[in-house]
Amino acid sequence: MGHASHAYLFHLETDKSVTLQAQLRRRLVSAILDGQIPAGSALPSCRSLARSLKIARNTVVLTYQDLVEEGYLVSRQRSGFFVNPDILRNRAGPAARSTVNNAPVKDDDQRPDWQGRMKRHPSQQHSTVKPMNWADQPYPFIYGQVDQNIFPLSAWRECSRQALSIDSVREWSKDRFTEDDPKLVEQIRTRLLPRRGILASPDEILVTVGAQNALYLLASLLFDARTRFGIEDPGYTDARNIAALRTEHVVGLDVDREGLVVDDSALAGSDYVYVTPSHQFPTTVTMSLARRRGLLAAARRDDFIIIEDDYESEISHTGTPQPALKSLDSQDRVIFIASLSKTLAPGLRFGYMVGPKPLIREARALRRLMLRHPAANNQRTVALFLADGHYDGLLRRLCHAYRDRLLEATAALGKYLPEFSVNAAAGGAALWIKGPPRLDMAAVEAEALKRGVVIESGGIHFHRTDRHPAERIRYCRLGVSSIPIERIEPGIKILAQIVREKLAQS
């Protein structure tokens, strides 16, 4: 294949986020590894490829030299650049088809029954599903995502750069086996936990891959088929689903304007009770101090453990938040879980768990079997982000932005949907709203998405599906963390039009 014939392989995009050199390198590597440019064949000259792609000759020269250093190409004096035959030597070829008596075996003759082999079917559980294209919609009232315009990207890049210094790389690149980055643990212990009134030693803290990882570790360590697990109803679907993988005894517990109802008859017999006291999920109410003390007293009396998910406590709009349940606990009855997903970024998958030393020791050993530890370079970057004060600055900006957006959303709901009831949120980034009778918010959600408005109907969060089915379908959650404030009122106006249409049809 001659030099010039290779030019058609490469087409570079006008993508400012990726340099032309990086794009060219990616195209060449892909063509070599996919066999489009055969081993040993010559590449176009730097001058001819640059001319055909309308890029600088130096860009091609640097890319070729880079690929020579990494073994993809070999340079021959006065002859040019060639694909290194060794680059494909260790790659397996296509597998030969199985035969019996020289006749091909049909694919389905020997396939195992994978469905029958499954001991669990998590894919069949009911979970919250967010549209993948939510960010492309003009009115994304979606919960749990971040506004990239608020995130301090330059500060994060600087911390990432520090984490990639020679000394830092020497520290985090080696396998820590079961240990977390001591700098991150120290920041959690001295910077994050004291704000929640919690004192903990390093061996009482475990870094997790988000709150779900912590819940899964706990269920794996503490639950069996007889375990009775109490959860707020409505409540967090992932906590309910994780528990349901281990036990059938998942019990919904009532929630009112003060949070979880401390009902002795409902709590009695529980082994574990999962609560979100700072901002109840999904209703957003804050558990009163009296209710917190009552729950701790019930845990002591009936000998159950409380799993406190503090997922959003730091987004507070009313000054000092209520103390964490863990801070009021003197008998090791509370396991504390927190996440940085709602403040930093959900894609980072960072959280932590605080509990008694024997529990953290076993959770650490189990985590080692699952994934060793969360990525050490990311741990160091988060540690630096916390230590340099960027996290505190981000929290202040988030609290101001979310408060203003919630006020805007509440005012727009009062203007366009006065028949809806709205839970006044003391913090966080969402409103829990209830529509009038006969309104199915799941149908409203589906129609709204067609018109660029992303909302989340609330029925999925209820555990006891047999109780008040006509009530459950009336609920909806409006998140404000990702929507610009100027789009809130126009989005709710469109939502109101859809609600009118659905009510007219019912």
TrEMBL record:
Residues 105-116 have a biased composition (Basic and acidic residues). The keyword DNA-binding applies. The keyword GTP-binding does not apply. It comes from the Bacteria. Residues 93-131 are annotated as: Disordered. Residues 18-86 form the HTH gntR-type domain. It holds the Pfam family Aminotran_1_2. One of its GO terms (molecular function) is transaminase activity. Keywords: Aminotransferase, DNA-binding, Pyridoxal phosphate, Transcription, Transcription regulation, Transferase. PANTHER family: HTH-TYPE TRANSCRIPTIONAL REGULATORY PROTEIN GABR (PTHR46577). In the C-terminal section; belongs to the class-I pyridoxal-phosphate-dependent aminotransferase family. This is PLP-dependent aminotransferase family protein. It comes from Dongia soli.
